[in-house]
Amino acid sequence: MYELFVLGELSINAKHGYDIQYMLKNTVGPIQQISNGTLYPLISKLVENGYINQRDEPQEGGRQRKMYELTEAGRQRFDELMAAPLEYSTDIELQLHFKMTFFGYVSKEIRLATMEQYLEYLQFNLKYILELESQVASKPEIPETKRAEVLRMFGHRRSAAESEVQWTLNEIKHINET
């Protein structure tokens, strides 16, 4: 997942590791962070695989700064990752955010396929929530106090899922109109 982000950032222009980490931090938000111990081994692996080149850039004071740039193989890998389906997992929203960050660099068909797959995931999740909500509502053996609170929780999940479905439908419409 982070591979896509690094290759995407380097598809825009060459960057040093700090710039990549800064952009990544702003994309994932304040809670989920990527450590240097994860990012720099990933960058090293991308260099080893020939997806990015590393060059030293002189800095003031004689220190060298490592700059990274995308290779043609890296561009092809980026395109493959953008075209690949989302993985149904707990980080599907982060996967979507990474892909959306680089939608301007891929075809309309890839953007639509990504959003339609995400819509399918959301609709499946919403159906699941509605079924559970119905089951809880119809179980008299659940104490009323607990049932009321569980139904409130499902109401929250349903509301969030419905909002996310509507947002995704709007995004699909926007992609189709552009």
UniProtKB/TrEMBL annotation:
Keywords for this protein: DNA-binding
Domain of life according to the entry: Bacteria
Pfam families referenced in this protein's UniProt entry, alphabetically: PadR
Gene Ontology molecular-function annotations: DNA binding
Coiled coil: none
Domain Transcription regulator PadR N-terminal: 6-79
PANTHER family assigned: PADR-FAMILY TRANSCRIPTIONAL REGULATOR, TRANSCRIPTIONAL REGULATOR RV3488
Protein name: DNA-binding PadR family transcriptional regulator
Phylogenetic classification of the source organism: Bacteria, Bacillati, Bacillota, Bacilli, Bacillales
